[in-house]
Structure formats: C-alpha cells, structure tokens
Amino acid sequence: MENLRAALTTRGVIGEAMGMIRLIARCESEAAFDTLPRVSQSSSHLKGPAVAILIAEAGSGGAPLTADVQSILDRCLGSEISSGSFFG
Predict the structure, then answer these.
(1) What's the alpha-carbon Rg for the chain, to the nearest Å?
(2) What is the number of other CB atoms lying within 10 angstroms of the CB of residue 43?
C-alpha cells in the first residue's frame, strides 16, 4: 500500500511541475514532460522526482530554485523564461 501511495504522490507532483513548466514556457504537455528528465540529467545532484518536487514547491510559493537548478531549467527551456518571479 505504501508503494501505491508513493507512486500516486510522485505522479501528482510531476503533474504539478509539468503544469508550471507549461505555464511559463507556453508549451505542450509532452514538451513539459520531456523537460523534467533533461533537467535531472543535467544536474549532478538531482535525480528523478526531486526535480519535479523542487519545481512544484518553487511554483507554489515554497523555497525558490537554487541558482544552479534555475540555470539548468533556463537552458532546458531554451531561454531565460523561467527566471522571472514565478520560480524565485
């Protein structure tokens, strides 16, 4: 039961992060989904759902993204679009 609960929680966080990426980048769901693993692969310390958790928390008023994660997200989105007040 714990595995199912964890999977559903992770899925929800990934959905939240995708929605935030779609909002700031004005992109389709597939492009937003593809951004998450690219950010993870570009980071030496963030793997898997950790990227989605950070993006979802930053977008909902939690801790802002760290400069290194912000830079990686900017590169993955192909611009400085994510640097505004939305994530920081």
Answers:
(1) 12
(2) 18
First to last CA, the chain: 36
Tell the residue number behind the tokens 């929605």, with chain if given. 19
Q: What is the pLDDT along the chain (88 residues), one digit of tens a residue?
A: 777 677 777 889 999 999 988 988 888 999 989 998 888 888 888 877 888 888 888 888 888 888 888 888 888 887 645 555 455 5
Residue 18 tokens read as 């995708």
Any idea where the domains of the chain sit in the sequence? 2-83
- Cβ neighbours of 47 (radius 10 Å): 11
- Residue 88 to residue 72: CA distance in whole angstroms: 14
The tokens of 8 are what? Answer: 């559903």
